[in-house]
Amino acid sequence: MTDRFPDLEIYLMKPAPDAVRDWLAGALGSTATDISLSPGHSHWRFTVQGEAMDVFLNENAEKNFASLWFKQNLSPWNSDLDCARAAHAALAIEIRCSDSSWQEDEDEAEQPWIKLIRGEEKPLKW
Q: At what angle do helices 17-28 and 80-91 cross, to 10 degrees?
């Protein structure tokens, strides 16, 4: 069994922010409250089981990829990969994520990544 990550982060290739927000609202069973919206950046708040969960979409995180970060993991997903699988199935776009939890003292370049594309999962050096 995978330990539950305290926060989640996945990378989405050129997502439509409204589609991401709508997918999350359905998956979380909660309406999104827009906290801050500016070109390229969205901050939404969802209420999950009576608790607030902040979710940030940075559309310019990496070349062609947006970062979707769940500051608190009150989601139904235990790991980045669980979240990435759900996002890929719902949004039908390429998703990338780490394959394990990240620690402050780890070298990010050494982190193994997974690419989800066209219904397949492939290892990736990013």
A: 120
